[in-house]
Amino acid sequence: MATATAIDQALATVDEVAAEGDLTAEARALLTLDATTHEAILLPDGRTIYPPSLFGEPLQEVACRLLDAQDPTRSRYLKLIGPPGTGKSQIARAIAYTSWRQQKKKVIKRHGSPFYGLIELQPGPSADEYFFRYDFIPDPEDATRVKLVEAAFVEAMRNGWLVVIDEVSIARDVALLSLNGTLDGRLILYLAATGETVTAQPGFGVILTYNPGLVGATDIPDAWHSRFPATVEVSSNWGALRELGVNGALVDAAEKYDSKRKSGELAWTPQFREIESLHVMSDRVGERVALSMFISGLHEQLETGKLLAADAAAACRMLDEGGFQRFKVSAGKRKAGASNAIPNLEGYPRAVTR
Ligand SMILES: Nc1ncnc2c1ncn2[C@@H]1O[C@H](COP(=O)(O)OP(=O)(O)OP(=O)(O)O)[C@@H](O)[C@H]1O
Ligand SMILES: [Mg+2]
Q1: Pick from 233, 260, 288: which residue ends a domain?
Q2: Rounded to the nearest whole angstrom, what is the distance from the C-alpha of residue 90 to the centroid of ligand 1?
């Protein structure tokens, strides 16, 4: 298998380098093995996921080894962190699907969609201490009333499913801390409405995804860091974008600026989702229009203080290097106040209607 061979080769070379007593720069380069060596995962809903690599191994396989499907009290839970659009939610789905297959369970239909033991929850800012315990649904027998039913989280505990709590940092602590008894290794949840204590069944697990330090978010409660001891910083799978046929110069530039983000030099750079969207929009409406829409988005975020000037300027340099320079307007047409001024950002025209 291509994956195994690539990993074996890398590990053998790492061993050689280590044997020579020099496990520094070279080893580091090898350990960031090209992610495209991993086979794409086709989810039952038709989505294709290109798994990112962690030290040469597909992330979903590492993640599944942390979970103990037979005895969930032995599981070590994972949090996937990273900026928007890097693929955190995607990889969480790949982990759930891989775990389901490892448990030799069949994909079934649930609520009309293929189901592989994954419950995705987005608590959001309005979630309270009942969010993970109860749901209110319209009473089928009396339209004027609502009915109390068990929340999807409880269902997941009873049935041994994997729960992904998405964008968890925007949920209030009051909702999250209500799970402390479940997540401290006891795997129990007390339901006051019936007096029942539910115990999680084999197969149950929890994964968090969030963007730490997001403006306006509360981050996760301090007590949760030790409950989710395995943290992975997810970054965009640039190799996958190349495989998808996105302009190689643009992907190279995006990857280059992304490494400046990782080193802390920049706070934000365009990620998988932005680059993929620019590619798809270019196909549909042409590069010039797609680019101007991308630029207007940057401009909006800059004006509203969501984006730093340095990050916006870096994104424009990324476009220069990605081959979009030909769409820039000349300095004369750019001058603010000039009657023929074209609204632009760093020379890139914005999508402004007339
Ligand atoms: N590894 C990947 N394989 C396939 N598609 C990917 C991958 N990573 C990202 N994508 C694409 O990028 C989009 C964003 O990915 P995803 O929703 O997982 O990001 P995210 O990190 O969860 O972002 P957010 O923080 O905004 O929720 C997806 O809809 C998909 O089109
Ligand atoms: Mg997400």
Answers
A1: 233
A2: 5
